[in-house]
Amino acid sequence: MLLGPPRGARRETESGRKGRGVGRGDALPPERARPRWQRRPVRPRPCPAPLPAERRLRTAGSMDASASASAPVAPDRLFDAHRLPGGEGPRLLLSLLLYAPVGLALLLLRLFLGLHVFLVSCALPDSAPRRFIVRVMCSVLGVLVRQADPRQRSLRARVFIANHVTHFDHNVLNLLTSCNAPVLNGTSGFICWSRGFLEVGGAESRAELLESLKAYSSQGGNPPLLLFPEETTTNGRVGLLRFSSWPFSILDSVQPVALQVQRPFVAVSVADASWVTELLWTFFVPFTVYQVRWLPPIARLVEETREEFALRVQELLALELGVVSTRLTAADKAEHLKRLRHSPSAPYSPPAPSQPSGTQDRAFPSVASAEDVRWSGMAQRVKEVLPHVPLAVIRKDLARTNCVDATIANLLEGRVPFIPSEAEAEDSSAAPSVSGTHYLASAPLTPAPMKLFARSPEARHLSLQERKRLLYDYARRRFMEKHGMAPKEGSH
């Protein structure tokens, strides 16, 4: 005969099952099967504290290698070439046309009010009341400035490092705290002073500029320096340019500042626009929102070089802004603008809407790099055959044909208009090197292929395949001449 539990315990168990909604055949959990006085109290687990910025940087870097400074990003994604961005298309253009009368009225009114803002900022001394008054007046001009956490700004910081989005970033940050941005490029004088830049006297070279800025920072009564290591503006949506190392040689401790700018209808900044044009567009649009976030100060490590320190701050700012950190520089932007000016103008079509740029770059870094390598290889093959054709024209036609032979045929037949590159033409017409003289004597070089048609009747009657064969032979001979390789027996 099996003995069950005591009668009182059985009633308690059945009543407990009924109260907890547990059936007769269900088994109670081990913790609930015990008497109440023997149960251990369940303590809630504390929420993990948020990681600091540098800890988040290391964690993200270990989990996602595409957030590093070697992320492949095309230059045209960092700079807006047109004033109308986004993928709205005709709807955005219609909205802008309907808003144009209101925008013109705001432009005229804000030009008049802007003169008063300038006079007030010149008349009042640099102080907290003056910054508050000018900030309120700038909100009437359509410039709205917001900062996430003002307590993060260090009162002992002597150098602020910020990303560069517009021509008025230094004016916006000057509305929040007293700081000076030295003028690096451009004319000095009244225009420089009226725009709010700091003129550094006697700084004709970069070394003299550094010495002057170090002497300025050593004086305790001067406001902090505001420096932009990118040295030029970007659209602020895709990535950061490579930080120059000279701003990080002034002091061993800097405070990064993350800056984001948004406005309706039009782009925040255009690559080749002047500051006057950007000012007029700022007065034309309803508002422009500047979002400022202060990051904790960062000190340089003991064995860390200036380049490594600049790269660490760049990756930290890129992580805070949600963009990628690139290896492109201000010189790459200048080269990109030069290609845009010399390449044939294409009709503008707004880009299709896509996922956020930072997510896209971090999700497919290997695919993007492999695709870039393939396109670069195809463009280089065409460039070896037609050295006088600009690379921008070659890449544009390759994107349309996706074939090296078809692109060469289009360029030879004159279907793609272009302006010959002077540097490549001079290089192709230059004298050969000493190592390839013996080879060129036995096999003279074919002249560089012409843009439209040859002048001699014999060359004009050559078929397309014969011309392509001659061009390939010419490219092969140029390659062997460049690398000092002797021709093989029987090669032609």
Automatic annotation (TrEMBL):
Parts of the chain that traverse the membrane: 92-112
Statement: the UniProt record of this protein carries the keyword Transmembrane: yes
Record-level Gene Ontology MF annotations: acyltransferase activity; ubiquitin binding; ubiquitin conjugating enzyme binding; ubiquitin protein ligase binding
Protein name: Lipid droplet-regulating VLDL assembly factor AUP1
Any one biological process term the GO annotation gives: retrograde protein transport, ER to cytosol
Membrane topology recorded in Swiss-Prot or TrEMBL: Peripheral membrane protein
Domain of life, per lineage: Eukaryota
Major location category of this protein: endoplasmic reticulum
Similarity remark: Belongs to the AUP1 family.
Intracellular or extracellular location(s): Endoplasmic reticulum membrane; Lipid droplet
Keywords for this protein: Endoplasmic reticulum, Lipid droplet, Membrane, Transmembrane, Transmembrane helix
Positions of the CUE domain: 374-416
Keyword Electron transport in record: no
Pfam families hit by this protein: CUE
Region (Disordered): 1-53, 339-363
Cellular-component GO terms for this entry: autophagosome; endoplasmic reticulum membrane; lipid droplet
